[in-house]
Each structure stands twice: as structure tokens, then as C-alpha cells.
């Protein structure tokens, strides 16, 4: 059974703070993703990684960075949190495949920036 | 790039009726179309998917149809039950996007008892 976990369910940070969101998957998946979910906008891709130390920008990378030092762990970093980054953040992973395979999601982290 | 539209944004049906959610995509190279269900406070979970070499797929009360010519695909839920109440997301992916999906904005389905 695939398990994707995220470090926090709820997080409250102040404007200007550096924020780390961590995601861990236990299925040896090559691909990992970070999404942001906002009402009426669906899931928007921030960054993804298809291998250790590899990263690619998604649709809304501004204000974010990522790190993937180990295959099972993918971190999202907000260098200087702003109020417009208040959102639900979802991590996902999937095995490599063509066409692609199902993405498995973590439980999400609801981040509030005050 | 790929753009996925989804309609309606909200849908209310009586228990036992059918529900249909429609999505359109823009890139003819897209070849994989998953549907995710997200219950309140929970993570999105795949409920059904279809690949571009198939026109229709069914799993119990859920079916998905794909029209490649028109670039649209639909989710059909029959005999709806209260536990079908959730937000449903369609997505599209293809060779131009690697392993990525582009998601629609979601449909909030409410099944009324």
C-alpha cells in the first residue's frame, strides 16, 4: 500500500519566515510533485522531480524552491513566506512510466501566513 | 501548453440519480486522463482513469468516456449515493508533459438524500 506522508497537517508562519514542507514516500517512486490547492483553481503544479537532485519548474514556481537529496524525500521551501502563499500544499509521487501512472497524494499541509 | 477546463463547478443531484462531469483539454498529444475524488478534509484519490487508445471504461457505478476528436472526456456516476459527495478533479497528461498532469478546477458534487 503506497504511503505518502507530509511533515505537518497545519502550519502557521509569519511573513518573511523561511518555511520547509517535507514529503516522504515509501514506494521507491521516481517522480515526486508539489501542488498548491486553492478553491476554484484546482491543483496547480509548483515543482516536480523525476530523480534525486533533479528538479523542474511547474506552472507556479515563483517564491518557491525544492530539494531532493534522497529518493524518498522531496522538500518544498518558501524562502520568505508571504500572505499570498497561504494555501493547502499537496505532495504526490508516482512511478516512472509512459504514459504516466497514477499519482499518489499525501494528506496535505494547510499553511497560513500571517 | 495544456489547458483543462471542467464543468460544472458545482452539481447537486438527488440520491439515486446520475451525475455527469465534463472536461475538455487543448493538447491533442495528451494520452492519459485520470479522475480524482477528494472528500472533505482528505487527500485526492484516483477513482478511474482512461488512456487514449480506449473510448470508454467502466468500474461498477463509475464510467469515463473519451472523445479524442473533440478533445473532451466525461465522468458518469450512476445510482448516486451520499458517499459520492466530494470534489472531483479531471486531469490530462501526455508525452509533451512527461509525468505531469494538468488538473481541471474541480466539480463539487452534492448528493441530496
In short:
The complex is a heterodimer of chains A (114) and B (113). Chain A has no helices and eleven strands.
Radius of gyration of chain A: 13 Å
What series of H and E elements makes up the topology of chain B?
Answer: EEEEEEEEEEE
Series of secondary-structure elements of chain A, N-terminal to C-terminal = EEEEEEEEEEE
Note poorly predicted spans of chain B: none
What is the CA–CA distance across the termini of chain A?
37 Å
General shape of chain B:
globular
**Quick one: how many beta strands of chain A?**
11
The interface involving the most residues is between:
A-B, 24 and 27 residues
Structure characterization notes:
Chain A is built from no helices and eleven strands. Chain A is mainly β and 114 residues long. In chain B, 0% of the residues lie in helices and 58% in strands. Chain B contains no helices and eleven strands. Chain B has strands at 4-7, 10-14, 19-25, 30-38, 45-51, 56-59, 62-67, 72-77, 86-94, 102-103, 107-112. In chain B, the strands form two sheets. In chain B, strands 2, 4, 5, 9, 10 and 11 form a six-stranded mixed β-sheet that branches. The model of chain B has no long low-confidence stretch (mean pLDDT 93). Classes of the chains: A mainly beta (114), B mainly beta (113). Chains A and B meet through strand 5 of A and strand 4, strand 5, strand 9 and strand 10 of B.
